[in-house]
Amino acid sequence: MSGTLILVRHGQSEWNLKNLFTGWRDPGLSQKGHEEAKEAGRRIKAHGLKPDIAFTSALSRAQVTNDHILKELGLETLETIRDQALNERDYGDLSGLNKDDARKKWGEEQVHVWRRSYDVPPPGGESLKDTGARVWPYYMRTIQPHVLRGETVLVSAHGNSLRALVMVLDGLTGEEIVKTEIATGVPLVYRLNADSTVASKEILEG
């Protein structure tokens, strides 16, 4: 067996709370989101996991989640690499809109297609497939080598950038991954074999 990959979706953001499309916009965490991030750190610690390096996106809600986790682990000075390759899916013209208002403007069915199809992007934005096209190469080139050296790697990112990773790690189809929910602040722990295949997966709930 090789190393360990810990994936954490950021805690609830202010815009999650307000039911807004967020994408590359940069709201902070809600009070609940701060607590979720701290709890993620406590769960990781309780399972005896100690990251050797951390990766996060260029957006503050993921960075603050990462900071909370590392503080709970007593690893505030751990090397953390920030890159927009791990950013949330870009929702384009939907960014900043209330999801109910978007349905009124474009219709329930069209908004559902943009949100829940694999390869249909909203106007000016990215599909999940597009998001994967930047996440996968970054993972292969920059993150995975650390895991294959036997390190424990923490990735604090977003619902859709993590969906793209989970799709590959779990061997899911485009249809399957869009139905997969990734909860805020709940760590997913993958242990990888030396050939990069998944040896085990554990969801650190409750």
TrEMBL record:
<keyword id="KW-0312">Gluconeogenesis</keyword>
<dbReference type="InterPro" id="IPR001345">
    <property type="entry name" value="PG/BPGM_mutase_AS"/>
</dbReference>
<dbReference type="GO" id="GO:0004619">
    <property type="term" value="F:phosphoglycerate mutase activity"/>
</dbReference>
<comment type="subunit">
    <text>Homodimer.</text>
</comment>
<protein>
    <recommendedName>
        <fullName>2,3-bisphosphoglycerate-dependent phosphoglycerate mutase</fullName>
        <ecNumber>5.4.2.11</ecNumber>
    </recommendedName>
</protein>
<dbReference type="InterPro" id="IPR013078">
    <property type="entry name" value="His_Pase_superF_clade-1"/>
</dbReference>
<keyword id="KW-0324">Glycolysis</keyword>
<keyword id="KW-0413">Isomerase</keyword>
<comment type="function">
    <text>Catalyzes the interconversion of 2-phosphoglycerate and 3-phosphoglycerate.</text>
</comment>
<feature type="active site" description="Proton donor/acceptor">
    <location>
        <position position="88"/>
    </location>
</feature>
<comment type="similarity">
    <text>Belongs to the phosphoglycerate mutase family. BPG-dependent PGAM subfamily.</text>
</comment>
<feature type="binding site">
    <location>
        <begin position="22"/>
        <end position="23"/>
    </location>
    <ligand>
        <name>substrate</name>
    </ligand>
</feature>
<feature type="active site" description="Tele-phosphohistidine intermediate">
    <location>
        <position position="10"/>
    </location>
</feature>
<feature type="binding site">
    <location>
        <position position="61"/>
    </location>
    <ligand>
        <name>substrate</name>
    </ligand>
</feature>
<dbReference type="InterPro" id="IPR005952">
    <property type="entry name" value="Phosphogly_mut1"/>
</dbReference>
<feature type="binding site">
    <location>
        <begin position="159"/>
        <end position="160"/>
    </location>
    <ligand>
        <name>substrate</name>
    </ligand>
</feature>
<feature type="binding site">
    <location>
        <position position="99"/>
    </location>
    <ligand>
        <name>substrate</name>
    </ligand>
</feature>
<comment type="pathway">
    <text>Carbohydrate degradation; glycolysis; pyruvate from D-glyceraldehyde 3-phosphate: step 3/5.</text>
</comment>
<feature type="binding site">
    <location>
        <begin position="88"/>
        <end position="91"/>
    </location>
    <ligand>
        <name>substrate</name>
    </ligand>
</feature>
<feature type="binding site">
    <location>
        <begin position="115"/>
        <end position="116"/>
    </location>
    <ligand>
        <name>substrate</name>
    </ligand>
</feature>
<dbReference type="InterPro" id="IPR029033">
    <property type="entry name" value="His_PPase_superfam"/>
</dbReference>
<feature type="site" description="Transition state stabilizer">
    <location>
        <position position="158"/>
    </location>
</feature>
<feature type="binding site">
    <location>
        <begin position="9"/>
        <end position="16"/>
    </location>
    <ligand>
        <name>substrate</name>
    </ligand>
</feature>
<dbReference type="Pfam" id="PF00300">
    <property type="entry name" value="His_Phos_1"/>
</dbReference>
